[in-house]
């Protein structure tokens, strides 16, 4: 049994989609980040970075105590290696899959994430960061478009690289980007969206609060997501 500590974000959906694709038993604990449920000492024991998602493998290979795994890319690799699926066995394709996974972790996710912050959460529009991060978000879409114009999937076969990227492309509309201008991405997106496991994994809901749209946060909610409470949770 895998425990999934989860919130409905692109990074959270990487883990839930992966678990659904593998068809392994898991139970999800859904967090309300606006209430600061990710900032407790108990959760920090699972992830010292106090971010979601996290999985806990209660039956890790080799036995022993339950094993927490944090960072969504590390979760995908861990599950792919444990269950022997969704990471190509061929050395060349495996390398390609990991390269695109690292591209998502270091580029697509962080840059689109910053665009989300300044488009959706920033209390007042600030031209420089809005232009900076939206331009980079668009540039990365062109990078993805180029790759998908020459291959059906990022590593030729469907893999954890696609699972990592797809939720961020789904969220692009929230920062006013339209994938209709990118025909190869649109083709790839629709093929993945049609997978039953992807639809199940992407349907996992938050508890009460929603981070959809352009949330208007009160001071405590802001602090839990971006401010002093978030900082304080990782101070010794």
TrEMBL record:
Q: Which residues form the GST C-terminal domain?
A: 90-211
Per UniProt, what is one Pfam family of this protein? GST_C
> What start-end ranges are recorded for coiled-coil regions in this protein?
none
Please, which domain of life does this record's source organism belong to? Bacteria
User: What are the GST N-terminal domain coordinates in residue numbering?
Assistant: 1-87
> Per its UniProt record, what PROSITE patterns does this chain match?
GST_CTER, GST_NTER
**Matches recorded under PANTHER family:** DISULFIDE-BOND OXIDOREDUCTASE YFCG, GLUTATHIONE S-TRANSFERASE-RELATED
| Protein known as | Thiol:disulfide oxidoreductase
Species assigned in the record: Solimonas terrae
């Amino acid at each position: 049994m895998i425990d999934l500590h989860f919130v409905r974000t692109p990074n959270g959906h990487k883990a839930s989609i992966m678990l659904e694709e593998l068809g392994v038993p898991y139970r999800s604990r859904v967090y309300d980040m606006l209430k600061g449920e990710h900032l407790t000492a108990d959760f920090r024991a699972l992830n010292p970075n106090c971010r979601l998602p996290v999985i806990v493998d209660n039956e890790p290979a080799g036995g022993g105590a339950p094993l927490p795994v944090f960072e969504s890319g590390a979760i995908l690799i861990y599950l792919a290696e444990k269950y022997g699926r969704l990471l190509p066995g061929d050395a060349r394709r495996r390398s390609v899959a990991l390269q695109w996974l690292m591209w998502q972790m270091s580029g697509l996710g962080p840059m689109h994430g910053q665009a989300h912050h300044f488009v959706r959460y920033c209390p007042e529009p600030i031209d420089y960061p809005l232009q900076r991060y939206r331009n980079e978000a668009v540039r990365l879409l062109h990078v993805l478009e180029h790759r998908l114009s020459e291959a059906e999937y990022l590593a030729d076969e469907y893999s954890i690289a696609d699972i990592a990227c797809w939720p961020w492309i789904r969220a692009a509309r929230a920062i006013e980007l339209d994938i209709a201008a990118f025909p190869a991405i649109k083709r790839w997106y629709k093929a993945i969206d049609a997978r039953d496991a992807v639809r199940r994994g992407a349907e996992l809901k938050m508890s009460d609060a929603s981070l959809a749209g352009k949330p208007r946060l009160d001071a405590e909610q802001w602090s839990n997501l971006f401010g002093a409470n978030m900082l304080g949770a990782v101070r010794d």
